[in-house]
Design goal:
Blueprint: E1 7-8, H1 20-33, H2 37-72, E2 80-81, H3 92-117, H4 125-140, H5 164-180
Parallel strand pairs: 1-2
């Protein structure tokens, strides 16, 4: 990746995600249309794998955002390119809505898998750690409304600061992962920052 003119706000993650809130609301809106429990159960079973993939990818996206910010923070005094949020008014409730929704829904999904599909599943604790860290990351960075340069990036106490060597590794790995298009591969780097 080239950083001569600055660093991209998004290195390309958003091309591989689908908005979680409207997707979950759409699926549950359809489930709730059915009066018969058997129909609700069947509809949920048809979509539970897609929901699980959506959750895994979205949480990986949050991890990727933190990895990217931590890594590019080591590239001193470069402009952050294409941050369309910069300069907007910060509203903490709006900023945190999606990550809170995702956290609460992940807990609900475990219950719904038992209720509708009769399956006991577990979402790994580290995924909840990622969600909590991302929430703190959003707060300290005021929802990215003040990020115009790499020096503006703040890391909450729950995120370890990368060395320049580790930052280069993270950037190289992100580039490879984006070439493949599977954001869940970002999980392999979680221990570098959490």
């Amino acid at each position: 990746m080239e950083f001569e003119n600055g660093v991209q706000f998004d290195p390309g993650f958003t091309a591989y995600i689908s908005a979680i809130v409207p997707n979950i609301n759409y699926i549950y809106g359809n489930i709730n249309r059915y009066k018969n429990f058997g129909q609700k159960k069947n509809f949920f079973k048809m979509h539970c794998q897609k929901i699980e993939e959506l959750l895994n990818t979205y949480i990986a996206f949050y991890l990727g955002c933190m990895l990217w910010a931590d890594a590019v923070k080591t590239i001193k005094d470069k402009p952050i390119l294409n941050n369309f949020i910069c300069g907007a008014e910060y509203n903490e409730e709006e900023t945190l809505y999606e990550v809170i929704f995702t956290t609460e829904y992940a807990k609900q999904f475990i219950k719904d898998m038992k209720y509708y599909a009769g399956k006991d599943i577990k979402i790994e604790d580290y995924k909840f750690d990622i969600l909590n860290a991302y929430k703190e990351f959003l707060k300290v960075n005021k929802g990215f409304t003040k990020l115009s340069k790499t020096d503006d990036i703040e890391l909450p106490d729950c995120i370890k600061e990368l060395s320049e060597t580790d930052a280069k590794t993270v950037i190289d790995n992100i580039e490879k992962i984006l070439d493949k298009g599977d954001l869940t591969e970002l999980y392999s780097m979680r221990e570098m920052i959490l």
